[in-house]
Amino acid sequence: MRTTRVLAAALLAAPLAALPVTAQADPDPDLHITSVTLNRTGVAVSGLNTAPVTVTVKGTYDANTPVNVILERTGGSGQERTLLSTNLPRQTNGSWSGPLNVPSTANGTFKVTGVITGPFFPGSGSMTDPTPYAGPSLAVTGTHQPKITASVTPKYVPYGKPYSIKWAVTDAQTGKPYGSRVRVELGIDNTCAEYMGPGYTNLTDTNGVVTKAYTAADSTAVNCLLLPGNPSSVGGLGLVVLRPLIKPTVSAVPSRTSAPVGTVVPVNGSVHTVRAGCEVFLQRLYGASAWRTVNMGRVRSSGRFTLSAQPAYKGLIPYRVYVPACASIATASKAFYIRGT
């Protein structure tokens, strides 16, 4: 009978910060930037609000298309590492101008580092890399920043079974909900990396809580809550569900049950519920209870392995195969014997 033990570890979760998505191409060769200005050097923003900062870009481009300005964090401890302006429309004077919506999660200092040709679409990003530009800095004082937590039921999700996640958005400064329903995006897999925009949103209750039921297939991917913004999310939390650990089944059989001292005897075996590449150790019994490793190998993609025994003396010698913890519980095969002759 297989025994099961749960993994004693915390929920694997990490903040998600929105980053501009590009095609990993070169900057647009036709975009030439002469200046980028901000109408403010600093802003204060609280809670789930955003503070608008007007961004103006001067330069040349051979198409009547919007651009987006990128700012990167240079100081502070807010969750957001990058800020992206809205799609800045071309003005009659040839410049581009429009708002940068600054969230409280941007608490710290940011600096203009580049411009990309738009429009930026949530979930797709830009088809070119940013055109570098060292522009002005912006100081952000963010207070009452949102804190996102998640509780998975069951805590350890069995393979092939559905589950649910209770998400909560609260004020990190007070520890209390904001007192209104919060619009969020509950994503799976790609939508956690590529924010899909405000059309893909859910609402919490007035306590900031929303619970979602997930299928068994959803457990193989990252699950997340994102805070919608324009044009990208302004914060979030992603997690991978924890699994119960199953004790593997190990079998091992020597190709010979007796051999002259010093002869190499292959030991073939298999192990179930352990992934390919995990180590397996052939151990020999010393004294009454000391198992010591005499050979090492790895599990093949077929789940099988081959080790080498070498009788060191005449007589009946006990061996076993030991499998250490490798996304599983450590275990060992039954003892087997090779007689040295």
Contiguous runs where pLDDT drops below 50 for at least 5 residues: 1-12, 19-23
- Can you give the mean pLDDT? 88
Radius of gyration: 29 Å
Relative helix content: under 10%
Structural class designation: mainly beta
> What is the element string, with H for helices and E for strands?
EEEEEEEEEEEEEEHEEEEEEEEEEEEEE
Compute the separation of the termini in Å.
Answer: 37 Å
Q: What would the principal axes of the Cα set say about the shape? A: elongated
Biggest beta sheet summary: 6 strands, mixed
Q: What's the total number of strands?
A: 28
Tally of contiguous helical segments: 1
Percent of sequence in beta strands = over 45%
Q: Which helices and strands appear, and what pairs or packs with what?
A:
Blueprint: E1 4-6, E2 12-15, E3 32-38, E4 42-46, E5 50-60, E6 67-75, E7 82-84, E8 96-103, E9 108-117, E10 131-132, E11 137-143, E12 146-153, E13 163-171, E14 183-188, H1 190-193, E15 202-203, E16 209-214, E17 223-226, E18 236-240, E19 244-246, E20 249-254, E21 258-259, E22 265-272, E23 279-286, E24 290-298, E25 304-309, E26 315-323, E27 331-332, E28 336-340
Parallel strand pairs: 4-11, 21-28
Antiparallel strand pairs: 1-19, 2-18, 3-5, 5-8, 6-7, 6-9, 9-10, 9-11, 12-13, 13-16, 14-15, 14-17, 17-18, 20-22, 22-25, 23-24, 23-26, 26-27, 26-28
